[in-house]
Amino acid sequence: MELKDVKTGDTLLVNNDSFLSRTIQKVMKHWGKKKGYDTSVIYSHAGRCVWIAGELYVFESVDNGYNPRLFRTHYPWNYADFAIMRRKEPLTPKEVKQTTNFCLHLDTISLGYQFWNFIQWLLLVYVGINTFNKRKEDQDKFEYCYESEMEARKNLNPDRYGNVDQTDIFQLLFDPNYEVIYKSKQ
After folding, report:
1. 121 φ/ψ angles, rounded to the nearest 5 degrees
2. In the prediction, which pLDDT does 64 show?
3. How far is CA 48 from CA 23, 82, 123, 129, 134, in A?
4. Residue by residue, what is the 3-state secondary structure of 58-105?
5. Mean pLDDT of the chain
6. What is residue 116's three-state secondary structure?
7. Contact, 184 vs 77, CB < 8 A?
8. Contact at 8 Å (CB) between 54 and 18?
């Protein structure tokens, strides 16, 4: 697979060597073992791939909000540790436009990263205290990366997904509607 083969609507899952990435992987591994998931593959970050004007962008929740970042600048194809997931049922042209518009919409309302979420995960995984609040269906809010990707999936198929708060990497990886089509590292 090459960069040109990635499609709008694909999910990027990625790891890096930062302290935060390694910590998220450790927390998710602990969570996954508690829940009985296969924890052999864990990614610390997720985003939605969207082609705009011949360039591939990843719309993702980062420190300054939900933003598009140029794929080739932030995720070097031959060096980054990432996977690409694709919906099993190909997106229609209407759905490609829908997911692009949804990502652009989230970009306009999210101006900061939901750092509180990381503390919520630590409390849930290590102390057993659930501080996640159920979101109202029509509520836009600041989102963390797994949640924003699940929200993008739900936007395309609302009948297949419920509440996206407290989304973990395993819900993305083991979503029966999506499959991993490429891994950069084995």
Report:
1. -65, -40
2. 66
3. 22, 13, 27, 30, 23
4. EEEEECCEEEEEEHHHHCCCCCCEEEEEEECCCCCHHHHHHHHHHHHH
5. 86
6. helix
7. yes
8. no
Q: For the chain, how many residues are written?
A: 186
Contact 112, 21 (CB under 8 A): no
Proportion of the chain above pLDDT 90, given as a percent = 58
Which of 13, 18, 40, 14 is CA-nearest to residue 29?
40
Asked whether residue 100 carries a pLDDT value surpassing 70, the answer given is yes
Query: What number of CA atoms fall less than 13 Å from residue 160's CA on the CB side?
Result: 16
**The residue to which tokens 């900061």 are assigned:** 112
Q: What does the pLDDT average to over 68-76?
A: 92
Higher pLDDT, 92 or 117: 92
